[in-house]
Amino acid sequence: MSAISDKIRINERIRGKEFRVISNSGEQMGIMTASEALNEARELDLDLVEISPSAKPPVCKIMDYGKYKYEQTRKAKDAKKKQKMVIVKEVKVRTRIDIHDLETKMNNIQKFLDKDNKVKVTLVQFGRERSYEGMGIALLEQIAEKFEECADIEKRYRDAQKHLLMTLKK
């Protein structure tokens, strides 16, 4: 059983005495008792499907339930295909990083942003480096300045114990 069929009640599983019934073509058939609505659906060789159980009275539609279930699964598959996976890449830097090493890290950040990935820049601080937090923030500012034209800074300097974090996205 799929998740769709677990939530939707059909035919005899529908609880209630009276329903607002909609025909297969979408026309209002009026308010009917449960047995009348089931008989109408069976005459047309279709199913009675509960569309809106919370309405007063509940709304049911006469339709081919197998076809409806198939269309719902197709819609779910299409929506899943169109989803875009967001990948978060992480670049770690230290407060006392060399200029050339920083350039390499920035080149990596640029490559990740060009591939439409999010980039989490983590500034790792050990020992006494934590007491000079201003130097670390200045380094993150320098990185943010470089990428302010091509990327948005989603989060700035979130403090996580020994780390300062910054998230960039294109």
Topology (elements, then pairings):
Layout: H1 3-7, E1 18-22, E2 28-33, H2 34-43, E3 47-52, E4 59-63, H3 65-82, E5 88-94, H4 99-114, E6 118-124, H5 133-146, E7 152-160, E8 163-169
Parallel strand pairs: 1-4, 5-6
Antiparallel strand pairs: 1-2, 3-4, 6-8, 7-8
Structure description:
- By secondary structure, the protein is an alpha/beta fold.
- The protein contains 5 helices and 8 strands, in the order H-E-E-H-E-E-H-E-H-E-H-E-E.
- Strand 5 (88-94), helix 4 and strand 6 form a beta-alpha-beta unit.
- It is rod-shaped, with a radius of gyration of 29 Å.
Number of strands: 8
Summing up helix and strand content along with how strands pair, one would put the structural category as alpha/beta
Radius of gyration over C-alpha positions, nearest whole angstrom: 29 Å
State the name of the first-level CATH class of the largest domain. Answer: Alpha Beta
Question: Which characteristics define this entry?
Answer:
31% strand, rod-shaped, Ubiquitin-like (UB roll), alpha/beta, Translation Initiation Factor IF3, 170 residues, 2 domains, 5 helices, 8 strands, four-stranded mixed beta sheet
Summarize the structure.
This protein has helices at 3-7, 34-43, 65-82, 99-114, 133-146, and strands at residues 18-22, 28-33, 47-52, 59-63, 88-94, 118-124, 152-160, 163-169. It is of the alpha/beta class and 170 residues long.
